[in-house]
């Protein structure tokens, strides 16, 4: 035993009490029913519904004077097959190293963007730490295509991220990703800023993000991504806008909690600008030009029936842009979910989302219902329901 302890200490570098390396993870698995998966009913085993399956390592080392070296490596995986998620990246969820101290925290690597830190907690699919209904909606309650990244579908490579200290409930976050393209510093560049406030019962946050060549810099930053093709093809909601020179996301949210009840509201504006500027006809088969805009609003409520049992209900409305005098796409969605805590580590959940689409989508075809991550419908309506179990370690 002394030999084993010595070996583990040498490997983890935890000889000093002020240093630590922690292993953590989460497994989420369930059963899905889809009323219209390309025209047919679908029953399937599904994973990562409430939260994405993951395991990770997080570490800190005390350097003295209040300064710490920090790191995180976080892997995403499919529990059903054992395959890597995030396009085959070994640590596709997060991978960074940096410093933390009285000045805040600065890290370098692959990050969640500031939208996730300051606003995503208010959507029904989001986390519970900001007082909203939180995660009882699951991934299916995300905004169409998760175009505003409020459900944290897309990470940022080659980036520097800074968290300010918290001052009287206020905190700011900044991120900058260098494009890495020789001779053109702005190509594939991403930058984002956010701010948040939390007073306990009330919290609010806002964020802005600018993404150049989003088809490659954001949607195409995984090992399996194409260097020339359409990396936005997973959903017809915005697959026709892959030739955009830039994408802008402006979003804000707030929540208020009274006892067991909470209410949250979120707005996002997403703009795919200068269509036709990137990739030629391969990415722009309909020869679109100009700017495509999506405006999305969400209102959700949560109620904690007991300390172990929570329910949530939300409504989302999204409107797109009209092209070629065709009616603009609209997506209306109702989400409901419940979560029951069995223990500190394990809970059971049930979630249901219904979407109705109208108008014409980014491919200039009649819009079909396309609940995020589910197989798109063959018509303008779709209902997806799931029940499952989540355990953390």
TrEMBL record:
Keywords attached to this entry: Cell outer membrane, Ion transport, Membrane, Porin, Signal, Transmembrane, Transmembrane beta strand, Transport
Membrane topology: Multi-pass membrane protein
CDD domains, sorted: gram_neg_porins
Signal peptide: 1-17
Gene Ontology CC: one annotated term: pore complex
Assembly information from the UniProt record: Homotrimer.
Protein name per its UniProtKB record: Outer membrane porin, OmpC family
Organism from which the protein derives: Paraburkholderia xenovorans (strain LB400)
């Amino acid at each position: 035993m002394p030999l084993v302890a010595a070996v583990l200490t040498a490997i983890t570098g935890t000889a000093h009490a002020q240093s630590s390396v922690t292993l953590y993870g989460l497994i989420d698995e369930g059963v899905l029913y889809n009323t219209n998966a390309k025209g047919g009913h679908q029953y399937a085993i599904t994973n990562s519904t409430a939260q994405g399956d993951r395991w990770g390592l997080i570490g800190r080392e005390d350097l003295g004077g209040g300064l710490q070296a920090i790191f995180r490596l976080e892997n995403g995986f499919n529990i059903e097959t054992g395959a890597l998620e995030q396009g085959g990246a070994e640590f596709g969820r997060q991978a960074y190293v940096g410093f933390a101290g009285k000045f805040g925290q600065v890290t370098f690597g692959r990050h969640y963007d500031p939208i996730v830190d300051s606003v995503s907690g208010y959507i029904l699919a989001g986390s519970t730490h900001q007082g909203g209904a939180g995660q009882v909606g699951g991934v299916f309650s995300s905004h169409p295509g998760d175009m505003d990244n409020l459900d944290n579908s897309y990470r940022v490579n080659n980036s520097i991220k800074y968290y300010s200290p918290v001052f009287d409930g206020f905190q700011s976050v900044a991120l900058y990703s260098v494009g890495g393209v020789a001779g053109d510093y702005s190509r594939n560049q991403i930058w984002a800023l956010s701010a948040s406030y939390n007073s306990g019962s009330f919290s609010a946050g806002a964020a802005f993000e600018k993404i150049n060549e989003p088809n490659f810099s954001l949607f195409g930053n995984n090992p399996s991504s194409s260097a020339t093709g359409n990396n936005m093809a997973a959903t017809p909601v915005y697959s026709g806008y892959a030739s955009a020179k830039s994408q802008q996301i402006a979003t804000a949210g707030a929540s208020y909690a009274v006892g067991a009840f909470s209410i949250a509201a979120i707005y996002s504006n997403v703009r795919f600008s200068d269509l036709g500027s990137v990739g030629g006809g391969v990415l722009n088969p309909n020869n679109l030009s100009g700017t495509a805009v999506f405006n999305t609003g969400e209102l959700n409520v949560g109620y904690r029936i007991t300390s172990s049992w929570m329910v949530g209900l939300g409504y989302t409305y999204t409107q797109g842009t009209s092209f070629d005098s065709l009616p603009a796409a609209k997506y209306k969605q109702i989400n409901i979910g419940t979560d029951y805590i069995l223990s500190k580590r394990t809970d059971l959940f049930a979630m249901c989302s219904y979407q109705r689409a109208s108008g014409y989508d980014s491919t200039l075809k009649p819009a079909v219902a396309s609940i995020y991550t589910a197989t798109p419908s063959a018509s303008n309506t779709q209902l997806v329901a799931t029940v499952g179990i989540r355990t953390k370690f």
